[in-house]
Design brief:
- There is one protein chain.
- By secondary structure, this protein is of the alpha/beta class.
- The protein has 2 domains: about 5-20 and about 100-215, HAD superfamily/HAD-like (Rossmann fold), CATH 3.40.50; about 25-95.
- Helices cover about 50% and strands about 15% of the residues.
- It contains 10 helices and 6 strands; from the N terminus they run βαααααβαβαβαβαβα.
- It has a 6-stranded parallel β-sheet with strand order 3-2-1-4-5-6.
- It is globular.
- The chain starts with 9 loop residues before the first strand and ends in a 5-residue tail after the last helix.
Length: about 220
């Protein structure tokens, strides 16, 4: 068994860019959901989304209304944006690539409890993972917004669902910050990340990094 993975009792995975090649799906969906407000505003949200990968869509659309459009936070408008986004993203999540090596890693880490902790919508994720036959791997559960990652990690640690030595596998700066705040170790995956200049950022923070989950199985640093 991989020496790194053998150390952990819990493995926490982000979804987009880690288990699913869905970062571009989400990016395109943010634009599609807001393009009726004009290209400049929609592109501004896309830029904010890419810069804040892993943050809940609920917070991003609130930012869109209050900071980009500089309007009052209208719940009916927010709900409409969330519906537009969900409609745009659901099929993309069903069609995008799944990371290679997932089943092999599960077999090789029988000691570890597996969780998904994502900025994506919890119910949407659970539906997609069930329909795609992926839910069976995540015996610790599949979690997402409207709760943010900080809240999820704190709650699951308190309940001992995240137990012992734990590793967070992510592809964004927010993943690293959330893992650090919760006291989890962290590995950054680069193949599908949207973090600009990620090499410099990884070096500055002295992070462990792999290209993908398949590579993580052979990582021993």
């Amino acid at each position: 068994m991989n020496k790194l993975l053998a150390n952990y009792h819990t493995l926490v995975f982000d979804c987009d860019g880690v288990v699913l090649n869905s970062n571009k799906v989400k990016t395109q969906a943010f634009y599609a959901a807001t393009k009726h407000f004009g290209h400049e505003s929609a592109q501004a949200l896309v830029d904010y989304h890419v810069e804040n990968g892993g943050v809940s869509r609920y917070l991003k659309f609130e930012y869109f209304l209050t900071d980009i459009l500089q309007t009052a936070l209208d719940q009916s408008v927010l709900d409409d944006l969330l519906i537009r986004f969900s409609q745009s993203v659901k099929q993309g999540l069903m069609d995008c690539d799944v990371a290679d090596g997932l089943e092999e890693m599960k077999v090789k880490t029988p000691q570890a409890n597996w969780l998904i902790v994502s900025g994506g919508d919890r119910d949407e994720l659970r539906d997609v993972f069930t329909l795609r036959g992926l839910a069976k791997y995540f015996d610790g559960g599949i979690f997402g917004s409207p709760d943010d990652k900080d809240k999820i990690l704190a709650r699951e640690k308190a309940s001992q669902n995240i137990r012992g030595y734990a590793l967070f596998v992510g592809d964004s700066k927010y993943d690293y910050l959330a893992a650090s705040k919760a006291g989890l170790d962290f590995v950054f995956l680069s193949d599908w990340t949207e973090v600009k200049g990620w090499q410099s950022w990884v070096n500055q923070n002295n992070l462990r990094t792999c290209r993908n989950l398949a590579g993580l199985m052979h990582y021993e640093r």
